[in-house]
Amino acid sequence: MGFLEAAVVIYLREIYYPDGFSFPLVEIKNSTLSIEIFREAATIIMLFAIGFLAGKTKLQRFAFFIYSFAIWDIFYYVFLKISIDWPESLLTPDILFLIPVPWIGPVIAPIILSLTMIILSLSILRYDACKESVKLNRMDWKLLIAGSLIVIISFILNFVISLEEIIMSSLFTDPIALAIIESNFRPINWLLFSFGEMIIIFQIFRIIRMKRFVS
Predict the structure, then answer these.
(1) 27 φ/ψ angles, rounded to the nearest 5 degrees
(2) In terms of C-beta density within 10 A (0-12 exposed, 13-18 middle, 19 or more buried), how is residue 140 classed?
(3) Which helix (H) or strand (E) holds 134?
(4) Are 184 and 155 in contact (CB under 8 A)?
(5) What pLDDT, in 10s, does the model give residues 112-149?
(6) pLDDT of 65 above 90
(7) Which of 24, 94, 101, 138 has the smallest number of Cβ neighbours within 10 A?
């Protein structure tokens, strides 16, 4: 799936960026953009299907889903590097996701998040070796959701700020495209990203240390 994702992106870049992908972005037809959004949604559905088929409980399915998501995301960049020698570095900016709005940040950010997701999933699945299933309570889920939302906000915050400024200045030519371009030139909010990561990592340690089991 990582190679499939990389192949699609390579084709798109051959069409829209024959001289190499870079910001500012070129204009893409709304129909093509809509197809790309639905393609991303289809990818998430396929990854969810992996988790659903691999896991026996809801928690196991969640763990396999985020594990598959993380592996897919990491190898997407691996195959891009192998195929077209991109990104130039881990700090190279990229459009990470389009749902519900564009996520923009350096390549290293999603890789860090993917590694965290792998550790989180393995911390849940490791109990299978003991033939026991770990049970997360409401506080566990609240911490995971809060940390995840904060990380997501760190990715989309610059886009939202740029879009608001463009709309307020009455530049309605193509506010979405302009916001994507302008938000790229603002550094990711590393403080916000790190805070969300710390919450998730804290929860990982809680899961590793917990003694709550269900047979």
Answers:
(1) -75, 135
(2) middle
(3) strand 133-134
(4) no
(5) 999 999 999 998 888 655 555 567 888 889 999 999 99
(6) yes
(7) 138
